[in-house]
Amino acid sequence: MKTMTCIEDLRQTARRKVPRAFFEYADGGAYAEQTLRANRADLARLNLRQRILLDVAGRKLDTAILGEPASLPLALAPIGLCGMQHGDGEILACRAAQAAGIPFTLSTMSICSIEDVAAAVDRPFWFQLYVMKDRGFIRELIERATAAKCSALVLTVDLQILGQRHRDIKNGMTVPPELRLSNLLDIATKPAWALSVMRGKRKTFGNIAGHIKGMENVNELSQWIGGQFDPTLSWKDVEWIAGLWKGKLILKGILDVEDARMAARTGAAALVVSNHGGRQLDGAPSSISMLPKIAEAVGSDIEILFDGGVRSGQDVFRALALGARACLSGRAYIYGLGAGGEAGVARAIEIMRNELDVTMALTGVKTVGEIGRENLAAM
Ligand SMILES: Cc1cc2nc3c(=O)[nH]c(=O)nc-3n(C[C@H](O)[C@H](O)[C@H](O)COP(=O)(O)O)c2cc1C
């Protein structure tokens, strides 16, 4: 792992190790992938202000996220089918996050279930919720997250309907993958991946399988999920969920100032400025371009988290400079997972930690709390 010097190295390794259908599922975005590209391009455009001779010894990267100490202003984002990048991927990523002292978020669409992860780690993690039409099932999921002592509920609000990802259709990306000759040949060239997935606890949606009557078979289950995303979802449902969940609530998928104002009024502890990593509304602005407006409008009422395109410690610094308290990492850690399991996720976090530390030193900042707009170079 030592020769993996940046997230792009992990990405290239993951591309070699993970079957194409799953790698591209993670790597790609919706439709023409315009928003996916904008997330990266707009971050890269923000130049940092180089400062000198400021005595930057004894820098501190730790912070608090939702009032809990974190060693870095970073958390791992919810990733559906994380356990298909590497067997038991959710458990491995959660362990790596906890060892690094940052939060991990388990997706509703994970392979390992809430209970699997809770039994395999020793500290609480966050649980991400998709609200489905079957509200009885959602109520049960919330109860399960409570029983597993999850420390926050991340309610994703930007996926009432699924944005089309062309690559998934072309690759036959289903769970399990379509049994096409090309997929079988591809998997045959990735024996380490196949072994890890075969040995993994589960091969399907762990939070759902066995919890819906008559849905034991994987194909029936996939169909059920496909029909369950709920276009009627509204602020009323957020209220309903806030009533059921007694812990901290995070609203994920806010990209508009008006929506951010509504989110702040719900009493949620935090919101995540996010366009789902460019996987939903193609043509939406990059998340970094919306962050300063949202932070300005509601930053004093609700904690602001950020995701979309974060691939380095410099990116974390940029988001903090524009008003985020912390970032969520999606693909960056998923590449690490595909490249090297738990060690790969740990490496992804370490890379971003080191980059953030050096960036702080060279911009003349000693603590993450000091990072502000003045640390960006005037354009
Ligand atoms: C492969 C993949 C699966 C994802 N699955 C979920 C999910 O199940 N729930 C969710 O709220 N967001 C999901 N997201 C969005 C991420 O949580 C996050 O918002 C996004 O990845 C951030 O952008 P980045 O990948 O550029 O860091 C997913 C993203 C990817 C790449």
Mind explaining what this structure looks like?
This protein is α/β, with parallel strands linked by helices and 379 residues long. Helices cover 44% and strands 10% of the residues. The chain is built from 15 helices and ten strands. The protein has helices at 7-17, 20-27, 34-44, 89-100, 114-120, 135-147, 166-171, 181-188, 191-199, 218-226, 235-244, 257-265, 287-298, 313-321, 331-363, and strands spanning 63-65, 68-70, 74-76, 105-106, 126-129, 152-156, 248-254, 270-273, 303-306, 326-329. Helix 12 (257-265) crosses helix 13 (287-298). The structure holds flavin mononucleotide. Residues 25-26, 39, 77-80, 107, 109, 128, 156, 252, 274, 276-277, 279, 307-310, 329-332 line the site of flavin mononucleotide.
Query: N- to C-terminal separation?
Result: 37 Å
Q: Tell me the series of helices and strands, N- to C-terminal.
A: HHHEEEHEHEHEHHHHHEHEHEHEH
Low-confidence segments: none
Query: Largest sheet, order of strands side by side?
Result: 3-10-9-8-7-6-5-4
**Mean pLDDT value:** 96
Structural class: alpha/beta
Bound small-molecule species: flavin mononucleotide
Query: Helix fraction?
Result: 40-55%
Count of helical segments?
A: 15
**What oligomeric state do these chains adopt?**
single chain
Describe the biggest sheet? Answer: 8 strands, parallel
Shape: globular
- Please count the beta strands (DSSP E, at least 2 residues each): 10
Radius of gyration: 20 Å
Strand content is: 5-15%
